[in-house]
Specification:
It contains twelve helices and two strands, in the order αααααβαβαααααα. The chain is globular and about 70 Å long. The longest helix has about 30 residues.
Amino acid sequence: MTSSRNGKNDEIMELQEDTERGQWDGKFDFLMSMIAYAVGLGNVWRFPYLCYKNGGGTFLVAYSFFFVLAAVPIFVMEVSIGQYLQKGAMEMWRMCPLFKGVGIGNVVIAFMCIAYFCVIVSWAIFYMISSFNSTFPWETCNNWWNTVNCLSGNENATYVAALRQKLKLANQTTETSVEQFWEKRVLYQTDSIDEFGGIQWELLTIMFFAWLIIYFALWKGITSARKFVYFCALFPYFLIFVLLIRGLTLEGASTGISFYLTPNITKLADTTVWKDAGTQVFYSYGVGFGALIALGSSQ
């Protein structure tokens, strides 16, 4: 009698958990959440860098290989598991308590990722706010954070040669205005690790608002944040399209496109190309983090 009563109590508790878990209003909302999750910062700023580093078209071949044989199958598997079990990344391991630590590890890694992503977002917002000027502050050397080492790129060859000769005597090198804006204005970077420095209050305030936006977007559950999901799904594509148009209008764009689409077969023998491609595929589509399981459990 006791065992049967306990079994009924367990069934009631599981039924309550299922009813409390939010569900997507429709398949389209679920699809948009998948699109929003799959496209992010990694596609905008990390992929172009790795593509250029590893030979353009060569990297694209290796990337496509890992995408088809690794990313897509694991992506579908995680979503299917979450949809079938109707559990998140931690709760799903009740089916095998020995691996419960994997679920806990997924949550810890997800928190670590969102923590540094908020820092990156604060940098991006700081740059966006700073760009609302007739002249970008990182284009000139006339700002309070610039030093005598600064070069904006508009100086003539005679001035540059004289400055480098002068700095060479002092065992120093020149720095671009872009570098100095990043290190001395955005980060308030100190000269050595021994100097701890202070708090960059502007970045701290921006990061606080970034966390605030995340909180209000998720406080009722991801399934209730319909408009937020739509924005996260569509805005990255809009941004990529804008960057594409801007890139195509730059001088030498045809050379870059040719480098991007023409693979160098000899570089496929380099293990670094395959390592970077595999890492980027998993990084871009977020497989193995447990988030796909949680999104699938709401469908």
